[in-house]
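Q: Xanthine dehydrogenase YagS FAD-binding subunit, please. Structure only.
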Amino acid sequence: MRPFELTAPESVADAVASPGTFLAGGTTLVDLMKLNVMTPQRVLDINALPLRGIDTSDGLRIGALERMSDIAAHPGVYPVISRALLQSASQQLRNMASIGGNLLQRTRCGYFRDVNMPCNKRQPGSGCSAINGVNRMHAILGTSDSCVATHASDVAVAFVALDAEITLAGASGTRTVKLDDFYRVPGDTPDVENDLRPGELITEVVVPRLDWARRSTYVKVRDRQSYEFALASAAVALDIQDGQIADARVAAGGVATKPWRLTAVEEALRGRPATTQSFEDAASVAADGAKPLSHNSFKPALLRRTVVRALIEGSR
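A: Structure for Xanthine dehydrogenase YagS FAD-binding subunit:
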């Protein structure tokens, strides 16, 4: 780890006016600093800022500094969000990690984290080692010739499924962005991962009121039961009335370069009976457009099966 200056701004205004890299739980940043993947000269500890609180009076509002474990345990949080959080990392990390930091975490691609290997996300123009390398964990959706790294967050998948927005504070004021629009596919600029502008800070996550999201779930398929990233995951919320699917929200993780909203699956579900056959028919389009690599050709089928499993669980 290289030397750096540590300061602690006393207000959001001071934080966004100060050049540097924000530190909350530090569960991603500190790791990357130890690996010299990120080498900030100035780190701003924002833990004292008034960015906490969980409000469920009309939808869901979560302060960016709320810890993942506290959100998961809150009785007013939709099940799909709680389950995504509880299947993330380990209990110790969930006790430390902030929700804002989780949404901004960097990819877990091993080539990105190894400064001795070419990586366009870390060093633009150097190449993507994963495309012709070990790519079992990598993306099949939203990829490009420049990058195939997956987005690591579980709860971001749930938030995208529920049309969540984030509030951003910057030197020029605040703005609100839908999370699905905030994340970017790599294209020719994989180093630009999102729409965060210089100096901006996530202050709040806002999930619109969706009463029928009480019938929701998150299914994560991984190599081991805990402390492992997804090979495929699915966040599902279903509005079932008289045995028919009136509306649906579906998003996938572990298979794409950003949390991947499955709008074609949602459309295929609406108006259909809530049966296993309907779920299988809808999930058949989940991997449309996928571009498997040499080691992850199993992912399209795994994604389809994961979506079906989540739909079955979410319909109960």
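A: Brief note, in case it's useful. The longest helix spans residues 299-314.
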